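Quick one:
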Amino acid sequence: MTMTAPTVSAHAAPQPVEPPQPRWVRPALFALLAATGLLYLWGLGSSGWANTYYAAAAQAGTQDWKALLFGSLDAGNAITVDKPPAALWVMALSGRLFGFSPFTMLLPQALMGVAAVGVLFAAVRRVSGPGAGLLAGIALAVTPVAALMFRYNNPDALLVLLLVVAAYLMVRAIQTGGTRWVVLVGVALGFAFLTKLLQAFLVMPGLALAFLVAAPIGMWQRIGRLLVGALTMVVTAGAFLAMVSLWPADSRPYIGGSTDNSLLQLALGYNGIQRVLGDEELPGGHSMPGGGSNLFFGGDPGIGRLFGASMGAEASWLLPAALIGLVAGLWFTRRAPRTGAVRASLLLWGGWVLVTGVVFSFMDGIIHPYYTVALAPAIAALVGLTVAELWRGRAYVAPRAVLATMSAVTGTWAFILLARTPDWQPWLRWVVLVGSIAVAAVIAVGVHRLGRVTAAVAASALLLGGAAPAAYAIETAMAAQHGPVAMSGPARSDAAPGAFGGPGGPGASVSDNTELQDLVRAVDNRWAAASIGSMTAGDLELETGASVMAIGGFTGSDNSPTLQQFQNYVADGQVRYFIAGGHRGPGGDSGTSSQIAAWVEQNFEPMDVGGTTVYDLSK
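Output:
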């Protein structure tokens, strides 16, 4: 019996040998992966360098092995980006293999998206069959924020793939109770930490709870193996942290975003607890901007944030249906054996959604709409799993009622989200709304009595449920995206660039200044130039291939280099030009960066290079 029977249990622990799959499964899976690849690869590179901050670091990794190892923003190894380097490793190695360009930089991101869809299919299929796996894979592929981030060069693409891999490995661990699978989960989560630090750990409660409840071994064995997995995770992530800590600080780049040149402090501070609790401060005590009025910063904290104007259209299209399915599934499996596979998966994916969703909803620090890509796999898995299980029990009234509710709610919510961009395809929201309600009515009355028409009703329900997010995903894939923060879907007039700039931001004039580019390209110092903040430095690096020092890191507020260090670099002839202006974000107008700018202005003569003020530090 499946979970859909109101009074009976779900699947018991699966047999060691799986039954043969129907012939249609492999072609259907290949079609799904091919369609996903087409969506994510079509026009790849049209966004140019996308986020130039990470693009410049990836380029530096193609030029210098130490820059690759540490994730330096420049080949001269002045400072790293404000994240661990795992995602940069992938992009830089792609550039080393195929030559560095926007396409080769973004190619691994798109392929990781296709892989994530395939691994999610495998994880759900092992529990609820290939139909459920295909539904989950489709739901992930057409989530708009997934179509955005698997075509972008932020770290989130690798993070999502590693989290989905960890979930698949945990499904295997739950089925067998084997230590090997739990160890591999720890390895995946350890690398996820080296991709985006503590965000990787938000899935841990769901994974651990599912194993603790359902693994077919004794309680103490379950606890012991979870501890082994946790130790493996610590060793995997800790090995790199230890290497950074033990490496002499004067022979490696400064850890961008930290206050004490420590990757551990970066993990626990700027990119850790401060993001959750708020009152986030940059090095030097400068507060970070944000606020609910800025769509790029997630909107106001609260229970409705995931559904609000900033985040709603990114990943929440199927979230109401997923939550309804989760509650119904847990109710229908309440009498299942402890090792029931369906209930275990509900705990795993449900824990992922609930913990991550609650943290994203209420965190007071920096959060951007695209963070919701971390929710997309679990939402998709819950939809695929619960729809398939409920459909098998459609002869019962209760499963039909739940399916009908999920269909109607999905159509209604899609109508609301589409209405937020009223001038874009206005017909679509009405088709989805009316069609979903009509299908819900048919399901509720008794779809199982319709004979051959049943398949058509099922297909209509799936098409209507996925039409709106798929349309948004296609629109996202067709549009060019630029800047530190990107949003999916049609362009919106209320989505102005945030505090860190965007299209036409501070670095735009550098990209057009060929005279400045020629000047920088002609020298071979360790750093051809230096500028405050990463915007000008990153753009100039990408245009010239030269190493440009970003004084103060991303926003110009990091305490690196100090005035004395910069003076020593100039005295040794290691940096040739200082470019005035730059991008002074929060804290970038005072402290170390301001001291360096003042010293340069007092001791060197300015010259105009294509409309940009430049100081020749060799004179």
